[in-house]
Amino acid sequence: MAGNTTEPGRTVTSRALSILGAFDAEHPKLSLSRLSARAGLSLATCHRLVAELAAWGALARLSDGEYVIGHRIWRQGLLAPINSRLREAASPFLGDLYGATLATSHIAVRDQTFALYLDCVSGHSSVRVLHTSGSRLPLHTTAVGKVLLAYAPPAVQAAVLRHLTRITRYTIVQPGRLMEQLKEVRTNSYASTCEEMVLGSYSLAVPVLVEGGVVAAIGVVVADVNRFRQRDRLLAELRKQALGIGRDVELRSLASARAV
User: Fold this and answer.
1) Buried b (16+ CB within 10 A) or exposed e, 57-81
2) Which residues contact 199 (CB under 8 A, 6 or more apart)?
3) Which of 70, 93, 118 is the last residue of a domain?
4) What is the per-residue DSSP string for 138-189?
5) Which pLDDT value is given to residue 227?
6) pLDDT tens sequence across 142-153
7) What's the domain count of the chain?
8) DSSP line for the chain
9) Which pLDDT value is given to residue 5?
């Protein structure tokens, strides 16, 4: 349980933070009663604070009545130093990636059980996508998401496997099949999807490494299955730009450390 304290003596700020802290990889969606229990708040207090947080955009209410973290928190998260540094470092490389492939190009990081898109580059002829900078999509539905999921902690993988929602008829919703794909991602250092998020779209993604660890994933989305079959060329370009982003982030981090 995220919280087990009682209300007396707690500030409004601590109560609001306990509500936000109730969400984690194991609990990406919560009902009001579950939020109340996990935050250690009475149902009445929780209801009032949840309404205020939802009005501000920190929480969002789903059609089934459960709550999730809202878009405004996601946008604030983009300002975190690592995300800001990644966006700055990735920008020119994403431009080069788009220039070389003419495919929608993007970079994403993991936000609990979602892929959070930091930046996206596309053109008039690019395939239609459902994401823009600041969007979040389920990890199991996209190539960048599968890369991030493959290198995520076991608890995160387990949470995702329990909630494999179907977006299209091609979305992988069988836990065993997805685990096999994640194993292949770790072996081959890339992930792919075929119409799993949007019908008629195909995606490839590779990890971005900083000091040996996976901090992000970059990917491309194409609409022409024949272009998608040119996997080796697309992967070569993806890996080239991922290497450049990782090196740039390391240099920025080193420069920042020296300036302190």
Assistant:
1) ebbeeeeeeebbbbeebbeebbeee
2) 168, 170
3) 70
4) EGGGSHHHHHHHHTS-HHHHHHHHT----SSTTS---HHHHHHHHHHHHHHS
5) 66
6) 999 999 999 999
7) 2
8) ------STT--HHHHHHHHHHT-BTTBSSB-HHHHHHHHT--HHHHHHHHHHHHHHTSEEE-TTS-EEE-HHHHHHHTTSHHHHHHHHHHHHHHHHHHHHH-SEEEEEEEETTEEEEEEEE--TTSPP-S--TT-EEEGGGSHHHHHHHHTS-HHHHHHHHT----SSTTS---HHHHHHHHHHHHHHS-EEEESSSSTT-EEEEEEEEETTEEEEEEEEEES-HHHHT-HHHHHHHHHHHHHHHHHHHHHHHHHHHHH-
9) 44
* Pair 240, 169 in one domain: yes
Taking only the tens place, the pLDDT of each residue in 38-80 is 999 999 999 999 999 999 989 989 888 999 888 777 667 666 6
Question: Are 28 and 87 part of one and the same domain?
Answer: no
pTM for the model stands at: 0.70
- Give the residue numbers spanning the domain of 54: 12-70
Region class of 215: left (phi > 0), else alpha (psi between -120 and 50), else beta: alpha
Report the C-alpha gap between 23 and 170 in whole angstroms: 29
Instruction: Map tokens 């302190």 to a residue.
Output: 260
Q: Are residues 219 and 111 in the same domain?
A: yes
